[in-house]
From TrEMBL:
CDD domains in UniProt: REC_LytTR_AlgR-like
Protein name: Response regulator
SMART domains: LytTR, REC
Keywords: Phosphoprotein
PANTHER family: STAGE 0 SPORULATION PROTEIN A HOMOLOG (PTHR37299:SF1), TRANSCRIPTIONAL REGULATOR-RELATED (PTHR37299)
UniProt source species: Zemynaea arenosa
Organism taxonomic ancestry: Bacteria, Pseudomonadati, Pseudomonadota, Betaproteobacteria, Burkholderiales
Keyword Phosphoprotein: yes
Length: 235
């Protein structure tokens, strides 16, 4: 099992690492000091489970859990505060450890993780799309809910997330982002995709191209290459 520890406090990370070193079946343990680094580690290392603190500067553990890519690692929250338990389990957490916990309590959490991993292996392909995206912007991290994104377009090495309140830039390929967002979005152009439920009309153009009109009135180009996919999604 590959474990990622996410906590902004070094002593807490060190203690959990020592406890995990005593447990069988732990092949690798890595660490992240905040939510942004945690998502970077998840994308690069693909851990099986994250032990995730909740109260962290700028990006909380709950925000991290809601922003995990599909397929997402399992999440065990480890926090000194009990008031987040309901929200944690709403986020599909495997367990909720209250600090300070002992080795016996950690073992029970690890057993739950093993059970869940076994169930996941028996039923592959049931991951969930991310509910929100974390967008760094000049020292501030914006939280963009996927349901608020009307359409997406490429911008050099970034994608612009068009929402009713703006279009923040995220360093990500369009293809990679659509893999995270799941079936709610449909690609309509080499450089664009739209949230399918927001399409209000399809206007035919010359040479098989068309234009998608969203409920907001925004017009998004749709090339001949992707028109059949869009129409199929619309039923």
């Amino acid at each position: 099992m590959h474990v990622l520890i996410v906590d902004d406090e070094r002593p807490a990370r060190d203690r959990l690492r020592r406890l995990l070193a005593q447990e069988p079946g732990i092949e690798r343990v890595s660490e992240a000091r905040d939510g942004i680094e945690a998502l970077e580690r998840v994308a690069a290392d693909r851990p099986d489970v994250i032990f995730l603190d909740i109260q962290m500067p700028e990006v909380t553990g709950l925000d991290v859990a809601a922003s995990l890519p599909d397929p997402a690692p399992l999440v065990v929250f480890a926090t000194a505060f009990d008031e987040y338990a309901i929200r944690a389990f709403d986020a599909n957490a495997v367990d909720y450890l209250l600090k300070p916990y002992d080795a016996a309590r950690l073992q029970r959490a690890l057993q739950r993780v093993q059970d869940r991993l076994g169930n996941r292996a028996a039923q592959p392909g049931h991951g969930l799309a991310v509910q929100q995206l974390l967008v760094p912007d000049r020292g501030v991290t914006r939280i963009v809910r996927t349901e608020d994104i009307e359409w997406i377009e490429t911008a050099d090495n970034y994608v612009a997330l068009h929402t009713p309140t703006g279009a923040p830039l995220l360093r990500q390929t369009l293809t990679g982002l659509l893999d995270k967002l799941g079936p709610a979005f449909v690609r309509c152009h080499r450089r664009a995709a739209v949230q399918a439920r927001l399409i209000a009309a399809v206007h035919a153009l010359d040479k098989g191209d068309c234009e998608l009109v969203l409920h907001s009135g925004t017009r998004v180009p749709c090339s001949r290459q992707y028109r059949d996919d869009v129409m199929a999604r619309l039923g």
